[in-house]
Amino acid sequence: MSPPPFCCRTNVLEENETPGYATFLPMEADGETMSRAESTIVGLFIGIMCPASLFVLWWWVAAALYIYHVFSIPESGVPGAALTGLGIGIVLDLLRLKSWITRFYSLDLKLTVLAYLFWSAIAVAFFMGLPFGNIALGTLAGLYVGRKQCHAGASRDLFARSTRNLGIFTALVTGAEALPIGVLALGEPIIVAGLRAIALDQFVATGLMGVGLVGVGCLLLMVVQFWCTKTAAALAFRIGKNVA
Question: Which DSSP letter does residue 14 get?
Fold first, then answer.
């Protein structure tokens, strides 16, 4: 019987392995462990994210150097730096994309965490402080881990423990970013007017009650993020299991 096209059975994780970071355990990948459709999707994802990430990184670094006068960088040099990062990303895609696809599910833990935090900051900036980008990013993280655990042949119990830890991580990141944004938003006239309409008291709207409402909102947001991450991971994991 030929192996299932989506779920690789090499490097099977044992039941007695330590949970938690098992989500990120290295795994052999040689290109035949993924279907053509999956490898195409992975290639498109990497091919877009590498230039886009370097574009934003060089843009932010150049803008910070300009704003804080670290170097004598003219304002017109900021777009040039961003385009330079974009060009480097495209060149890296041309040179390394194939090898990155085969190693996609073997990424180092530190690299994945740093990438997630960086993209999370981009999501906050792109959506102007709204949590939609972070929710989507956490969902993508769940899809990645679900596919990785499927390719690693993880048991359902080990998978559940690993995705629980991942869900906690994404929820904490989302909550940590949402809390200061929510507190700062209390100073916005529109937000204050809305809180006054609810609480019918200026002190309640702008004082401790406002901070409390932000805290409750962050907790609810963390619950949503946790659920989205775990649900996406479960769906991605079941794809290979169902095919098998």
Answer: P
The residues, ordered by sequence, that sit 6+ positions from 187 with a Cβ below 8 Å of its Cβ are none
Q: Which residues contact 8 (CB under 8 A, 6 or more apart)?
A: 33, 34, 150, 151, 152, 153
Question: HSE on the CB side for 106, CA within 13 Å?
Answer: 15
Give CA 100 to chain center in angstroms. Answer: 18
Half-sphere exposure of 184 (CA within 13 A, CB side): 8
Give the whole-angstrom CA distance, residue 41 versus residue 5.
15
Q: Is 52 exposed, middle or buried (0-12, 13-18, 19+ CB in 10 A)?
A: middle
Q: Would you place residue 2 in the very low, low, confident or very high pLDDT band (cuts 50, 70, 90)?
A: very low
DSSP code of residue 200: S
Structure-derived torsion over alpha carbons of residues 50, 141, 13, 97, reported in degrees to the nearest 10: -10
Q: How far apart are CA 166 and CA 172, in angstroms?
A: 10
pTM beyond 0.70: yes
Q: d(Cα 213, Cα 4) in Å, to the nearest integer?
A: 49
- Give the residue from 33, 244, 230, 238 showing the smallest Cα distance to 156: 238
Beta strands in the chain (DSSP E): none
Q: For tokens 């994210």, what's the residue?
A: 49
pLDDT digits (tens, 9 = 90+) for 76-135: 889 999 999 999 999 999 999 999 998 899 888 889 999 999 999 999 999 988 889 999
